[in-house]
Recover the amino acids of this structure.
């Protein structure tokens, strides 16, 4: 790719401007069908532009793609902000057919195809080149960490599995994650891996570059994308666990090693970033938040109604402990740890990815210091998920993994999460409630999995980790 910046001058962004009449209806239909679109459930009636940056001029003739970077606001007012990279071509080649958003009906580009350009190697190659050259286009700032050259020769491909965001792999060397629902402010998916890399923690791929946007009227930039080394040949913990289950085989050695890896990341985070002590006042605030989220979940998913009181008792038990004078240390954590966020490289080592936190929570909440047991609870839930994913349900498999994970965690930190059963139950309960809402919204067929845990946890089960 050329050293010369290939970008057209940015068109000015007009916040609140309604999209060109012809593109608006296409997005109204296309956006709600994306896995990453959070506003499902209520009809989408309006999409407006937050910022528009032309990266390649729109095609006047021939079959050269035009490329537009868009931040749009969509969903119930004020609406969430989404990042889109749209290509425009007079004729869409067959390999891009699955990326079609629709055809423009009016204006100078009538008849042209609009498509999700993350499927187009020409467009994604351009993003990598922009990161390499630290390009500035309109409000977009492409950044690169350090002076180490980026390998630029790998063919880009979009990861096809449905995720909360969209990721493009370049050869087998780099992976660029484009965040889909974006907010201004520091994003933990960049903040924490950078802090860990600078702390010397090797359990997390170190960010190699990132994309931010400065928008008029916003005090803080939006973090839009993060570039990391691609862990070649790595298997994710979820697939590994399912494969073991299918062969009726034990997973405890891996679970224990995962406990070690999680503990190492926690120890590094506690060194790299501030820790705080949670006393009575902070705990009561935390429990209040847990109860509010439970109330909202019960409203959203009526299947929770019979269990609400039992679930709430897990939270109030925590508040009771705090009022007796018990305190906890809180620190920055992963925030949405599960088997799918753990990658095992061919040398047998575990790495953790995706530090964004729970996608549905506000950014400020995701950046709060929290008891590290919260991540432990996420992993314990994940072993339970894996065991329930296949048939028949293997009694004992999840318990053995849960125990092994805690053992590994205790070996590395000197502190066994099982010695704090009240906090563990409260955090597991919170995670299961979150999962019920997540599954109801995204994968209703899976709702039975967290609901099984809800029954168990609402009945006051403690000490379920043998
Ligand atoms: N550094 C990496 N090396 C190899 N594969 C990765 C890496 N980072 C992410 N992946 C793969 O991409 C998928 C999506 O990444 P993730 O950060 O979890 O995105 P999302 O927020 O969309 O879930 C992961 O499940 C994993 O399979
Ligand atoms: O990976 P994401 O950041 O997109 O996380 C969201 O989706 C996850 C599912 O892909 C969801 O995780 C839940 O399902 C997993 C199995 O698919 C299971 O291992 C996890 O334990 C369970 O929580 C995650 O909660 C959600 O935030």
């Amino acid at each position: 790719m050329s050293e010369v910046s290939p970008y057209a001058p940015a068109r000015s962004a007009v916040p609140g401007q309604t999209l060109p009449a012809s593109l608006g209806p296409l997005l109204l239909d296309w956006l709600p069908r994306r896995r990453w679109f959070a506003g499902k459930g209520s009809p989408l009636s309006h999409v407006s532009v937050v910022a528009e940056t032309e990266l390649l001029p729109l095609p006047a003739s021939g079959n050269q793609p035009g490329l537009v970077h868009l931040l749009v606001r969509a969903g119930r007012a004020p609406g969430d902000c989404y990042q889109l990279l749209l290509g425009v071509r007079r004729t869409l080649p067959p390999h891009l057919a699955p990326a079609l958003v629709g055809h423009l009906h009016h204006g100078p580009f009538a008849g042209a195809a609009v498509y999700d350009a993350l499927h187009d190697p020409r467009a994604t190659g351009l993003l990598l080149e922009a990161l390499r050259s630290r390009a500035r286009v309109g409000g977009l700032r492409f950044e690169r960490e350090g002076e180490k050259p980026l390998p630029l020769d790998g063919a880009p491909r979009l990861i096809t599995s449905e995720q909360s965001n969209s990721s493009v792999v370049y050869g087998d060397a780099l992976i660029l994650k484009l965040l889909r629902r974006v907010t201004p402010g520091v994003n933990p998916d960049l903040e924490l891996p950078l802090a860990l890399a600078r702390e010397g923690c090797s359990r997390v791929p170190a960010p190699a570059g990132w994309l931010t946007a400065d928008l008029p009227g916003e005090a803080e930039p939006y973090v839009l994308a993060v570039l990391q080394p691609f862990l070649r040949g790595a298997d994710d913990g979820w697939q590994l666990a399912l494969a073991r289950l299918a062969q009726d085989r034990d997973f405890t050695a891996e679970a224990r090693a995962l406990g070690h890896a999680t503990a190492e990341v926690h120890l590094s985070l506690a060194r790299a970033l501030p820790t705080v002590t949670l006393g009575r006042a902070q705990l009561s605030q935390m429990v209040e938040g847990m109860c509010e989220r439970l109330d909202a979940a019960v409203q959203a998913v009526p299947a929770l109604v019979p269990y609400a009181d039992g679930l709430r008792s897990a939270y109030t038990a925590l508040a009771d402990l705090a009022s007796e004078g018990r305190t906890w240390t809180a620190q920055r954590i992963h925030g949405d740890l599960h088997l799918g966020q753990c990658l095992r490289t061919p040398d047998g080592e575990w790495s953790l990815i995706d530090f964004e936190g729970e996608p549905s929570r506000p950014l400020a909440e995701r950046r709060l210091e929290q008891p590290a047991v919260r991540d432990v609870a996420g992993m314990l839930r994940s072993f339970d998920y894996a065991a329930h994913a296949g048939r028949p349900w293997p009694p004992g498999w999840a318990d053995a993994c849960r125990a092994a994970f805690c053992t590994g965690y205790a070996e590395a930190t000197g502190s066994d999460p099982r010695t704090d059963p009240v906090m563990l139950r409260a955090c597991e309960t919170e995670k299961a409630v979150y999962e019920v809402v997540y599954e109801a919204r995204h994968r209703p067929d899976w709702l039975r999995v967290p609901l099984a845990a809800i029954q168990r946890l609402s009945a006051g089960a403690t000490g379920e980790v043998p």
Summary: The chain has twelve helices and 18 strands. The CA atoms of residues 234 and 345 lie 4 Å apart. The two ends are 57 Å apart (CA to CA).
